[in-house]
Amino acid sequence: MLGVQLIENIRIIHVYSQQVKLLALTRLMRVRILSFFRSFSIKKKYFEYIPDEVLEAPIAALDHCHLFKNSLVKYNKMTATVVEYKVTEDDYYDYYLSDVQNKGYICVSEKNITASYISGSTNPTHQLKRYEFQNPCWYLGRQVVKDTMNILDNSIMGFKVLAGCKIYLKAFQLNTIMQCLQDEHCRYMIADEVGLGKTIEACSVLKIHLSSNANQRVLIAVPGVLVAQWRMELLFKFGLIDGDNGNGNTITLETVEELGKNSLVEAWDFLIVDEVHNYLKDSDNYQKIHSLSTNSENVILLSATPIQQREEEYLNLLRLILPQKYDKVSADDFSELVEKQNRISRLTYSLLDEIDSFKNELLPEIEADNPHEDEDVIEELEVIKEKP
Questions:
Q1: How far apart are CA 156 and CA 36, in angstroms?
Q2: Do residues 198 and 305 lie in contact, with contact meaning Cβ atoms separated by under 8 Å?
Q3: Rounded CA gap, 264 and 160, in Å?
Q4: For residue 269, which of 182, 206, 204, 179 has the smallest C-alpha distance?
Q5: pLDDT tens profile 130-162
Q6: What burial class does residue 149 get, using C-beta atoms within 10 Å of its C-beta: 0-12 exposed, 13-18 middle, 19+ buried?
């Protein structure tokens, strides 16, 4: 299909699923000389079967066709888009074009325009009769579908895998799962109260991770009393088992108390530890979890909500999540960091509480003055900037 130019008779034609420019007719009027036109950044690699040279084609293989609306065409040196078309008395098409640059409109006969080979319509009946199952004009339509599917796949971040799981995720659980998946390496502690679905969140992250990765070695370490519960949750809700899960992925479910030396020195791709807060005062099991975290690429720890006032326990939890970072932090340095965090929080809440009253009564003054010159703000910022 294409904007076609004949020496005396110019038509847009369709030849064997390709758009061409008609250059001339033979004397016997049974063969037409064609030139294939490619423009508007259409890459040759997508249509390798379309020739560059001038060819001859029998008239019986040619169909007169029209261009799609919004197609880009060339008229003289002007690039325009097809707005509308009509059939003339002599069975040609006249096209109403919009100039891309000055937005003006003009009516032009198909004899005077040239279009890309993906712009012409085809008659499906004629194609089926010729056993043609491909056509360049379908390229743009396929690209729209392809691009849309890519956008959808990227936007749901693997959540399509969870569609077959027997779970119902609430909004806060979705946020937690997305947070865990957005980093290259997942190292998070999910700290919620009992009954808020920490196990569901961790298993969802694991399910999505395994769907996009192969040959993963996963260790799930839980208290002895929760082994049966975890095995049931994994199997009936997520279709995962303790053992081989296909694609080279293996899950090992063990109790923290019975972890052996082989497990502690093994390099794990994904580690999940449940009820980790129960082991903060159990030095032996704490060291086991610490060793596992150090040797694991991705880590999810499930814990009750930590109390920041218990700074030592808080620091010990952080050392399990990021041992390379917090093992070097002393208790005094961490205490200083917590105090600065509290100062920032108090200052932020104080400023937010006053915004509503300021914006109505003192808005002109606030806009005129530099807020960084406020003495209280300067004093608080100086304290925060001080080194431990």
A1: 42
A2: no
A3: 34
A4: 206
A5: 777 777 677 767 777 888 888 877 777 677 888
A6: exposed
